[in-house]
Amino acid sequence: MEHRHLGRSGLKVPVLSYGTGTFGGAGEFFGRWGKTDVQEATKLVDICLEHGVNLFDTADVYSAGASEQILGQAIAGRRDQVLISTKATFTMGPGPNDKGSSRHHLIAACEASLKRLGTDYIDVYFMHGFDASTPVEETLRALDDLISAGKIRYIGASNFSGWHLMKSLSVSDKRGYSRYVAQQAFYSLVGRELEWELMPLGLDQGVGTMVWSPLGWGRLTGKIRRGHEAGSGRIAQGGHVGGPPVDQEQLFDIVDVLDAVAGELDATIPQVAIAWLLTRPGVANVVVGARNEQQLRSNLAAAALTLSDDQVRRLDDVSRKQPIYPYWHQMDFDERNPKPTRW
Length: 343
Hints:
- Strands 3-4-5-6-7-8-9-10 form an eight-stranded parallel barrel, surrounded by five helices.
- By secondary structure, it is of the alpha/beta class.
- The chain is built from twelve helices and ten strands.
- The longest helix has 18 residues, at 248-265.
- A hairpin with a 6-residue loop joins strand 1 and strand 2.
């Protein structure tokens, strides 16, 4: 398993990590993701470690803490073999301070995550979203204090706008606080908006990208394709499967090319979609999920694929779409404002 530096930090992470959103399955929303219990989770962790995948991603809000609890039990006795990333910010209780990125909430949230995970430190602690109601200085000072206390080792941002992330980095530089070394963001062949601003920002500022939902909210599993019946479960052709709307004809075109490339490589459509992400500038890690052992082994095999330049170009071309302003305007001035990818 290839390892890459997480942004401009000294921490190396595997190119694939395992997302534990399926652990627990509490409530209607997370119940649709999966209902992995401790026994199954332990088996899935075993498989990951066998393949060199030692980074496990979770969040306090996943199944109201059950995901962290189950992950903690699944890694019991081998904490020194794994890296854990988790997140805070979203609502975890009925009180007015049970959410956000205030000092009050973050310290309480971090302590609660540590307890559920059964560990005394978190490797990468993400702000799950930007909290505009809390001063950036307060958030970053609280995180810096948690680092000094040895409770977290690195920090990251998730689902931030470009200006949210840049403002945070500027405050860290000005005040001497620890910087975000990673951004966790949605990116896939059906969602390439990351390339417009967050990707160039990350490359410029040394912030590595951890990709979530690499299969575009299930659209790139191969179950949704031209001329095929709707899939079962939460995948339904032409239906809403989550995430932003996607042009159906372009989706079919993308899957057609994925299918062709998969045939050339004796691979699956999801494997090719994940492998394409690993060719993208600034991507340090792709978070993959799985409901069972078969799905996990299949997804992990994506790390062994090597796409040719021609295959990458074909996937780039079929998934390209017109960016919004000012990005379409900037494309006319590449000699002065070059882009890491061609949209």
